[in-house]
Design goal:
The chain is α+β, with helices and mostly antiparallel strands and 276 residues long. The chain has one domain (2-270): outer membrane lipoprotein receptor (LolB), chain A (Clam). The chain contains three helices and 13 strands, in the order H-H-E-E-E-E-E-E-H-E-E-E-E-E-E-E. It has helices at 2-34, 54-63, 145-162, and strands at residues 74-83, 92-102, 106-113, 119-124, 127-132, 136-142, 173-179, 182-189, 192-200, 206-215, 224-238, 241-251, 259-270. The longest helix is centred in the first third of the chain and has 33 residues, at 2-34. It starts with a helix and ends in a 6-residue tail after the last strand.
Amino acid sequence: MVSILLILGFVLFALAVLRVWDERADRLEWTRLAASQPTKPAVYERVMVADLPEPAQRYFNFAIKPGTPLLSVAEIDMKGEFSLGTRDKPNYQAMDARQILAAPTGFVWKLKMPGVVPVAGSDTGSWTRFRIFGLIPVVHMGGDTDHARAAYGRYVAEALFWTPAALLPGPDVVWEALDEDSARVTVNHNELSQAVDIKVDAEGRLVLVHFMRWTNANPEKIHRLQPFGGYLSDFREVEGFRIPFDVEAGNMFGTEEYFPFFKAKVTAVRFPAPGS
């Protein structure tokens, strides 16, 4: 019995140390991304997008008011539902999350689901780590090209609705027209590239975002390109940006197999000063 208790104690201690180490990594990555906020940002002028396809111009001219400092790093607080199941049995759980988004550099998403079996952890461009009861790892992965590519698709798409200044045209951000209400942006960063399609309404609000995402969310658990996307609504103004506060997204977007596993209602958006 003493030996069993000693072993159990050692295991619990090791799990606690791993949790502390992981939380330290979360804080360091959050601080790194916050420091990438422009220190002396330019302000938005409509001439900046005058050469873009008309749907893209409409998108930017709605999303960013003239004279707005072009801050490209945001912190987002959200509540809502997150699925721990499948399309047929979604098993939605209440969630409480906060995120820092600094596309195309990275992101940190910290999640808590206080259900019967509480789940908490974080998702970034380098790792996905979740625990039950605050201690026992149930997901602990990342550090490979598949994970980096999958995560990159996510935070480039999210930049379209939460940090539009990050998607203004430049050497690594290219826009093209698709039709009278749709456009495609392609964002390159280091070895990664992601194209994302948008559809806007007459005023320029994002109706939906969709793209082909590198993912293993399929029965075979094989990484491959699959449709991903979602719907956006409840736009509100924050520091000169018009941002959707209601987001629904999931796998197989645009098909009969669409599964919205992520349903978020934003509670706050901040654009932190560099070094804050």
